[in-house]
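Predict the structure of DUF1360 domain-containing protein.
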Amino acid sequence: MFAGFGPEPPWFEAVLSVLAVWRLARLLARERGPFDFVSRLHVAAAGTRLADGLACVHCLALWLAVLPAALLAPGWAEGLLLWLAVAGGASAVELAAKENT
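Done. Here is the predicted structure for DUF1360 domain-containing protein.
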């Protein structure tokens, strides 16, 4: 994956996926974003079903985890398990971050 660093262990991309999904979910749910882009997105979605989903880090993690799971898993069964694992890992990181703040 990263040139010059040698082969990564098989779980490396899954861990990176968990952290990336958590970071994006946290950005969309709890932060204003660059140039207040995320704030504008929340205002535009106000009063819709999308607004509820944008307010929940755990909900966003579930949907955002679909892409890395689809890209990394070799089959549909592995993809389903990886999807749930990445979403669960991102939720666990969020819960751990909440306890430390």
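The chain has six helices and no strands.
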